[in-house]
Amino acid sequence: MSHRLVMDIANREGGISPIVVTPPSSLEMPNFRELWEYRGLFFFLIRRDIKLRFQQTVIGFLWILLQPLIQMLIFYVILGVLIGVPTNGIPYPIFFLSAFVVWQFFTQVVNYSAFSLVGNIGVIVKSYFPRLALPLSTVGTALVDFAVSFLLLLVFLLMNGNYPITFRYLLLPVLLVITIIFSSGVGLLFGALMVVFRDTKNFLNFVLMMWMYITPIAYPTSIAPEKYRVLFYLNPLTSLVDAYRWVFLGQGSLPRLSYLAISLSVAIVIWFWGAIAFKAMENRIADVM
Amino acid sequence: MTMSRLAVKTEHVWKEYRIRHDLEGPQGSFKAVLNAPFNWLMRRAIRSPQVQRFEPFFALRDISFEIEHGESVGLIGRNGAGKSTLLKILSRITRPSKGRIVLYERVNALLEVGTGFNIELSGRENVYLNGSFLGMKTSEIRRKFDEIVAFSELQQFIDTPVKYYSSGMFVRLAFSVAVHLTPELLLVDETLSVGDAGFQQKSMAKMKELLGSGATIILVSHNDRAIMDICKRVIWLDKGAIQMDGSSAGVAEKYREFLNVSVS
Prior knowledge:
The complex is a heterodimer of chains A (289) and B (264).
Chain A: H1 2-12, E1 19-21, H2 32-37, H3 39-55, H4 62-83, H5 92-119, H6 121-124, H7 133-160, H8 172-196, H9 200-214, H10 229-232, H11 236-249, H12 257-288
Chain B: E1 6-20, H1 26-46, E2 54-68, E3 72-76, H2 83-90, E4 98-103, E5 107-110, H3 123-133, H4 138-152, H5 167-179, E6 185-189, H6 197-212, E7 216-220, H7 224-230, E8 233-238, E9 241-247, H8 248-263
Parallel strand pairs in B: 3-7, 3-8, 5-6, 6-7
Antiparallel strand pairs in B: 1-2, 1-4, 8-9
Helix pairs in contact in B: 3-4, 3-5, 4-5, 5-6
């Protein structure tokens, strides 16, 4: 044994540090250093995915702008005009969009991550690269949409005139970090599930649809009866959406730091859970073929 | 003991695949569906996963060898002998079921040309994407970009979407990226002969150049003559196990004898 060790050290001189490949275990941590070495791949994956989404369409990149606009119009007409959901005097389009930008980011990351292993099977069976790059790069793709929707929201806010950009926006980066970690974690979990149960594909649509309805995006939290309201906050997105609305609209109060710390902790736990599950499944997918 | 540098070491590597038995008739499978929840519970209870429905199949059995820096090694064997599985483990696409491998050099695997190529993207974009999948750093691709394009002779078309390329053009571009890797340890799977005759000659020259530069090469082929041409050492696999490991002339002779016997 000691002889082998000496050999390993002797061999290490000059070249890279040796890579030891062992049978997979069910508890493997993501290798962040390796992911960093493959940062170029992230960039080109994001560029590929954005380009491919609009390559075949006539109006191309305009879709990024149209998607939130159309969603907003639909909800405005149905919930704002026809049903008249109370929004505390905030114009419904602004009220909706201020939460929808977050929701849109969440669903995109979850959807893209869920399909990332199955959708890239061709390169997985033919080359080695950290597989986590596939789901993690979807964050970048979704951030492009987020940036456009966010600008759209800013235009609406500034046109309205009652919602100036204030010091509250300083909280935005913090919220964004929590949102990214949480969305990516949920996406990784579904990506792992997809490898073992192909039914996840159909099941995911319903999960996301239900999740949207239990998150106060198209309606305010105050619509729920007082005694059930605590249930709302079991959904980590609820307090996030409230915090975003505070930033954009000044509605409600500054989220307590302890709440944000809890949200961040929950997001990180879910991310690692997702990443470990994903790593356990990525070892299987090349063998399934 | 010589102090030559190791490139790769495999120690008692096994690879097990599980083959699902779908031989049950429709009634059987209907019953299987009904029983599924109970089977699942039972499996959890007795902790013996998937005993009945899967039969293990060993694609590799106790593979051990060491390859030194700068060696050129061929892997031969009949279909299903485990050559491709071994290459996939060495290139880290899949992991061994037992045993371990140690890689001392930067590995590049060429299991196909054009990994990750997308026909909607331009030639330029594909070069960058493909290079990244193969493990090149962005700065490295940028540095070699002109050389890659010149080698492929596609200068005028480099910003055209690849879907408008002929299949020959596609292969030329993909192969150009591949040969501009600077591997320390190169794994190749029968992708040597691509393109027209002229381009093939260029590719072979590039391969030889790589060998001359001191890279370690592991080559898989059904064609033992192609292997003899490049490799000094040959490992012969059969049914997942090493049959023979030695000088290419010696192993190739025994291998041919073996093939003749098993044919007749």
